[in-house]
Each structure stands twice: as C-alpha cells, then as structure tokens.
Write a structure and sequence with these properties.
binds benzoyl coenzyme A
Length: about 325
C-alpha cells in the first residue's frame, strides 16, 4: 500500500516495528513529527556543545607547556569543530538549516552542554576536560551510536574514535602532573574537584526528572537512561582516577560489593538547571566569544555564498 494512503496509526505502528527490529530510520523515511523534533533538539544541542566546547580548552593553546602539548591541543580543538560540522549536517537531514540552529544559539534560545560554562584556570583543567568530559561524552556517544536515527548513529563512529584519543591525551597530561611535583599533583586534584560535579551533570537530568527520556527511549534515540549512563561512567572512571592517587570529591563514594557498582553522591541538579538557564560562571563569556567568532567569519560565509551562486547560475 502507498505510504500516503495509510492512517497515522498504521504508519506509527510500522515505524515502531522497524525500530524494534533494529532498523535505522533514514532522512527520507516517514517519522512522527515528535521524533523529528526530539532529534533536531538533541542533535542541535550536541552540535552547539562541540563548538562552544572548543572555548575553555582553546584558551590554553597559546600557553601550552611545550611544542608537542600545543600541537595535540590544537588538533583536539580542531576535532571538536569537525564534530560540530558533522552534527549540524546530521540535524540538517531532518529539515532545519545550520543557519537557523546557529542563530538560535547566538540568540541564547538553544542549549549547549552545562559543562562548558565552567572556567579553566590551570593547565590541569585542560587534562581534566579530556579525562572526565570526553570520558563521559564517549560513554554517552557509544550509546548514541546504537541510536535509531541513521545519520546521528553513524556520525558517532568517527566522533567516538576521536574522543577516545582525547581521553588518552587528558590522561597522559595529568599523569605527568600527578607524578611531578607536589604542587603539580595538587593542581591535578584541584582540577578534579572543579570538574567532577559538572561532568556528572553533563549526562542529563535524573531519570525521575527528565521530561524527554520516555520518548527518547521508546523510539530508540537513547538505548540507556541518563542515570544508567552516569553509573556506567562512574564505574569506569573512579578506578582509573584512584589508580594514580586522584580522589573524586565525594565522601560517600565507595564500591558496593553487593551491586558491583560504585555508590556516589548525586550532583546538585538545581545547579544544573541554573547553569543551563544562563546563570553559570562563564555563560556570558562563552556566548560573547561565539558571537565574536560568528561576526569575524561573516565575510567567509558571504564569499562562499557568492561562489556557490556563481557555480549554480545557468551559463549564458
Ligand atoms: N547541559 O530530559 P533531559 C563534547 C536540558 S560535547 C545542557 O535530561 P535529555 C566535547 C535538556 O537539553 C558532547 N542542557 O534532556 C566537546 C532539556 O532542555 P530542553 C555533549 C541539559 O535530552 C568539546 C532539559 O534540560 N554531548 O563531548 O534527555 C570538548 C531536560 O533534560 C543538560 C551531548 O550533547 C546538560 N548537561 O538529556 C570536549 C550528547 N542536561 O531541550 C568534549 C547528546 C539536560 O527541553 N545529548 N539538559 O530545553 C544528550 O545525550 C542529551 O541531550 C543530554 C540531556 C544528556 C545532554
């Protein structure tokens, strides 16, 4: 039967059956409006997070201690820009243009990850972003690689591959500091104290307070919940940190033999709500930097638009 003659109920039943069979939904396929909206929201926020995420670390490029460290940091920050491009492209397949998404970001209407609204006062913070933030991102993104929407899932393959290298870069940098002077070790611990809770918040609202979770799970956009991912991240990262003598700032952190998981204190989700509404330590600074970059890149976009127009104009 032609897809246009089917009722909404028939179409959604088939759509959900395809997801249950593990098929990927592709751009031209029928999908419920709410599925499309949820994906545009989530992929758009993800793309914005990648490009805003360039800022806290990018600031350290001129101050990196040594040529090799500088090169790897430049490469990492460039990778994040590339991830943003891939994700804007994936969101565009759902019918929203990159220009619209960027406009929403610059007007303060679109969200990006809470975690990039915190400062990076020392070189150790750069390492901690790699170890913790990229670490949490990979736990989340490995799950998204199994997502029902084909372009989003496929984009994750390359992104996870590169982010995994970023984790190594952060670990390498911090391990050098931990085994350096007492002062360097203290810098690493202080950075962990700063980034621990924001990173736990990065994985989203608790399941009991997540308005989007039910739909995202039902339609296979997420195959695990925010709380499941947070626990997975904790179980992975706590032994890593402890193995080099770094201790997460949580007095109630212990390994529970019965559950086989690390027990931890939940972060303050009211702080998460405040930060994503614009009231974090660096929200204003981040948005000003993005707006400035957007303005400075205007001539490039105009030149590209003229070149495209010339290429596409019919020959006379
Ligand atoms: N930050 O029902 P919930 C990277 C919002 S960057 C900001 O839990 P959901 C990297 C949420 O958007 C990779 N907002 O939502 C880059 C929603 O607001 P709206 C970043 C948050 O969607 C550079 C409301 O609160 N990763 O790796 O189920 C250097 C309700 O929340 C946050 C991704 O973007 C937050 N933490 O879960 C280094 C992964 N938490 O839309 C590294 C993809 C909640 O109703 N995204 N909100 O206005 C996701 O997995 C999910 O969207 C989230 C939120 C886990 C972020």
């Amino acid at each position: 039967m032609d897809v246009r003659e089917r009722t909404y109920e028939e179409k959604i039943t088939e759509f959900e059956a395809r997801i249950a069979r593990g098929e990927k939904i592709e751009p031209g396929d029928w999908m419920p409006d709410e599925y499309r909206k949820q994906l545009i929201r989530m992929i758009g926020q993800h793309a914005h997070s990648e490009i805003v995420g360039m800022l806290p670390e990018g600031k350290w490029i001129p101050h990196a201690p040594g040529f090799r460290r500088k090169l790897t940091l430049i490469a990492k920050v460039q990778d994040e820009a590339g991830h943003g491009q891939l994700l804007y492209r994936a969101a565009e397949t759902l019918g929203k243009s990159r220009e619209e998404m960027l406009e929403e970001l610059l007007e303060g209407k679109a969200k990006y990850s809470n975690v990039f609204n915190y400062p990076t006062p020392t070189w150790a913070d750069v390492g901690m972003i790699g170890w913790l933030v990229d670490g949490a991102a990979v736990v989340n993104q490995r799950m998204i690689a199994k997502s029902s929407y084909g372009p989003y899932a496929r984009a994750m393959k390359r992104i996870c591959f590169e982010e995994s290298f970023h984790i190594k870069q952060g670990q390498d940098l911090l391990i050098k500091m931990v085994y350096g002077t007492e002062e360097q070790k203290q810098m690493a611990q202080d950075a962990l104290n700063r980034w621990w809770h924001p990173t736990l918040m990065m994985l989203g609202m608790p399941d009991s307070d997540s308005p989007h979770l039910e739909k995202l799970k039902r339609w296979g956009v997420k195959v695990k919940t925010n709380d499941e991912l947070r626990q997975e991240f904790i179980d992975l990262v706590v032994p890593q940190l402890k193995s080099v003598g770094l201790n997460p700032p949580d007095d109630n952190l212990y390994y529970d033999e019965k559950t086989g998981h690390w027990h931890f204190t939940e972060p303050d989700y009211n702080e998460l709500k405040r930060v994503i509404k614009g009231d974090g330590p660096c929200n204003k600074e981040r948005m000003e930097a993005r707006r400035k970059a957007h303005e400075e890149g205007r001539w490039v976009r105009q030149a590209l638009a003229v070149a495209k127009h010339k290429r596409e104009a019919p020959a006379v």
